[in-house]
Amino acid sequence: MSRGGIVRRPAGAGSGPWPDSIPPLLRRIYGARGALTEAQARPRLAHLLPPDGLLGLDAATTLLAEAISGDRHILVVGDFDCDGATACAVAVRGLRMLGARRVSHAVPNRAVHGYGLSPALVAELAPLQPDLLVTVDHGIACHPGIAAAKALGWKVLVTDHHLPGDTLPPADAIVDPSQPGDTFPSKVLAGVGVMFYVLLALRRRLLADGSLDGGSNGRGPDLSRLLDLVAVGTVADLVPLDANNRALVAAGLRQLRAGKGCAGLQALIEAAQRDPARLSASDIGFAIAPRLNAAGRLEDMAVGIECLLTDDMTQAREIATTLNRINTERRAVQQQMTDEAEQAFARVALDTSDVPLAACLFDPGWHPGVVGLVASKMKERLHRPAIAFAPSEPGGDMLRGSARSIPGFHIRDALATVDSRNPGLIERFGGHAMAAGLSLPLASLDAFQHAFRKCVELTLSPELLHLQIPSDGELAADEFTRHSADALRHGGPWGQGFPEPQFDGEFDVLGWRIVGQKHLKLELALAGRRVNAIHFGGWDQQEPPPRVRIAYRLEADDYRGGDAIQLVVVHREAA
């Protein structure tokens, strides 16, 4: 693998109509991300895009309004990841807020039903006899399942954000900003964001026709109470944080920091031992979302959804404890599978003159719920597209694969190319530029590996293999303060498309020690100022040189408290 190099982002415009409350450091960082005013850098709910432009919204709100007025049974079917779970909770809570009295929910079990609305899941749900089935965070590729639901006489509303295939499913209404003909300005809503927009449009429709009490302010129920869930699902799904998504996430974070989130999220924050008042988007991504996702990966996401729907804090804490335990098990399974994947890739690399351009790995003992995490780890460590496969069920002859890519290589398009050149090789696939999923027979694995690697060889530009670590430049000695760290923490939300600030510089190494067998704790000095640093996974069996160049994040050291700060190293090399 090509070693990474630090590349500085273009300097941002520091001048402009900034209020005094925004320090020069943040102004520079915002400018480097194209935000030149406070409104662009910190969009508020007042700047939220209106629902108009979302194709299918009129048909969707008609279905929902008729179901509510007719007291019909609405069944919300979620997905088994964090976006799908939060979208399900938003749909159930929101529909009840808007007057629906008969709302139930279901979620596929990864090991039993596979992804999305399948005919098997429809058959299992048939005794519930819903009048209207609503999919959240899936459905755009679930043609057989939707056809099965329609055959039972159910109305079907699809809310999704994934890319459609060549044809759309036979639903009664589809709301998906990625579908052809949709003019909604933002194409990067998460599944939970799409459902939230459907609820906004539904409330507007119900108020307009007089079937919903507007209350004292005339605006009806306060749907912003759902934004804690919207924030968690949006951050967890790694969609780009454009201005619209940042407005949604920032509002949700404000609720969570104020202790006004739903009971389940408050309990998960407690279980993750995070301070709600200091909660950030990265806390959601690395502490809250994994605990929800673990349920869908190893057991049943119904547990996670139940945590998000309960208003009983005692019950929420009990479920959060269960999710915490499952997440611990998930980490152990993931680590074992990642170690095995690295060993397997090392063997492949040793057997060839060149390191393969893509990692495509399978083990009959792997768990299908964790292959996405393994693919992510392999992609990060190798800086190559990676696909990890596991049996859909123990001893079965069908495989479930999860693919992750590097910037500049569209992994779903690559799978589409393989599919078009090899009809019937892949049973089904879907996803985004950076992440995708697929299923195929075990007997087709060797042919797929060959076809996929051939596609990568023909289409992957060699320059993309040179890992670049972006930096916002150097910090001055007087910027290594708790005030700067707090400003960066609360200057977000940071995430995909609006990256968390990283800096670089050369430091003297005053001391070092190994923590937890693989992490490196460093004591560094810059211009006479001492600062602590931690490089997670940074112990490479070699003593650090006396002077290093690092890329790092500046963070408040909450463990030590007070004015303490630390540098979180993301790249290290000899100066």
What do you see in this structure?
The protein has helices at residues 24-32, 38-41, 57-69, 82-97, 110-113, 119-125, 143-151, 191-208, 227-236, 243-257, 263-271, 281-298, 302-309, 313-350, 371-382, 411-421, 445-459, 482-490; strands at residues 5-8, 74-77, 103-106, 132-136, 155-159, 173-175, 359-362, 386-391, 398-404, 428-431, 435-441, 468-471, 503-515, 519-526, 529-535, 547-556, 565-574. With 575 residues, it is an alpha/beta fold. The model has no long low-confidence stretch (mean pLDDT 91).
Strand content: 15-25%
Strand order of the largest sheet: 3-2-4-5-6
Instruction: Please report the number of helical segments.
Output: 18
The count of DSSP E runs of length 2 or more, i.e. the number of strands, is 17
Instruction: State the major sheet.
Output: 5 strands, parallel
Average pLDDT score: 91
Shape: globular
By helix and strand content, what is the structural category? Answer: alpha/beta
Helix content: 25-40%
Over all CA atoms, what is the radius of gyration? 24 Å
**Low-pLDDT runs:** none
Distance between the termini: 21 Å
Supply the key terms.
single chain, 575 residues, alpha/beta, five-stranded parallel sheet, five-stranded mixed sheet, DDH_dom
Compact overview of the structure:
The chain has 575 residues and is an alpha/beta fold. Helix content is 39%, strand content 18%. The strands form four sheets. A five-stranded parallel beta sheet has the order 3-2-4-5-6, with helices on both faces.
